[in-house]
Amino acid sequence: MKKAVVFLFLCVAAAPVAAQTLSLEECRAAACRAAALAREGVAYGDMAFICRDMQQYSAPLLSALSLAGVPVFRDESLTLEHSAVASFFLAALELAARGISTERVLRLLKTELCSLSPGDIALLENYAYTWQLKAADWRAPFEKSPAGFGAQPSPQQAQELARTEALRAGIMEKLVAFLQSVRGATAAGISRALYFLLDSFGGAACTEALATQLAAAGDAQGAAAVYDAWNHVMQLLDEMEKLLGGDETSPGEYAELFALLLRGGEMGRVPQTQEAAIFTQADRMRLSGPRVCFVLGLSEGEFPRAAGASGLLTHTDRELLVRRGVQMPGSYENRTLLEQMYFYRALAAPRGRLYLSCTAAGDARARRWRPCWRWARKGTSSLLCSLPPPRRRRCSFTANSTARKRPLRRPCARRWRPGPA
Questions:
Q1: Tens digits of per-residue pLDDT, 362-391?
Q2: What does pTM read for this prediction?
Q3: Burial (CB count within 10 angstroms: exposed 0-12, middle 13-18, buried 19+), residue 173
Q4: Please, what is the end-to-end C-alpha distance for the chain in angstroms?
Q5: Is 390:319 a contact under the CB 8 Å cutoff?
């Protein structure tokens, strides 16, 4: 087996500083070294940045890599539940299950899939909370002054009232037709009604406009994620019919199962180009032998992460229950061994160079930010260790990538025609 050369970086602050500042300096050192390696001929696709907590290092590392001109791909999964199209469907199902209210209508409109500007939504929101609208008020025309009770509307407020009423009429026309179509419908009928509601608000056009805007701004991964989220959620609409069959289904039952499918589904990202470094987390990385690896955050108790007590039971309580014959998953020993395995995989990932970095502070509050070099020595005892200083120079390399425009997937409801559910 070919041995890798190990470089150790230690970012030390003599004065008390925040942990975020030290992490930023650590990421800057790694980014400068990556830019220097690129100038030496190392491809960006042969570089990988590994940490234990991606949420902690995402902002400082991406900022440092952007300043150094190093393109990077974030290996992270997204939950469909928080996507725009999923939020639209959940809001529509809540309207069907619990009725019309100001909060539910505004939740639907604020998904940014209704072809309404923020100013139009603000007009509706101000009028609704000024007059404390109920379900019957949303169905009736808006005729009261936007200024409140007893106030005489000015010409400008009269124009705002006319605009607000026009918005209400268009929204309620679509929502009333949707509520009637899901009443006593099957799962297939509800899926069809959901898609027709989204299509009537112009959801597909809003999604394509958002993806185009992200691609024009240089965020190819974000544009691809918008298309993927749309296609995955549309696929779930088709699966709902298979799961619930042809029996009559209430909107509440449909919404409960649909929410479970959204929470259980994760959407991964695919690199748009091979000329990009990989930024991943130790417990989810799937690397194929990169040439250079940067392992960040080797602080005592952080990486490898200390196995703390989870839930209401302590380690002693778990041991007592195990002795009494109770099966307790996630024991302290198993979690500790799992963290050691993540650490070993990170150290054994590269085939050429391995950079280990840590932060350390001089105040008592940051004692936990101590380097875990004992782990590094244990994992790299047979490797060559040296400590070269990082070169902090701006890199002239840039990455310009555009997202491929992919067609939006339509569910089976696209082939259906309006009719009784």
A1: 443 444 445 554 544 444 433 333 333 333
A2: 0.63
A3: exposed
A4: 65
A5: no
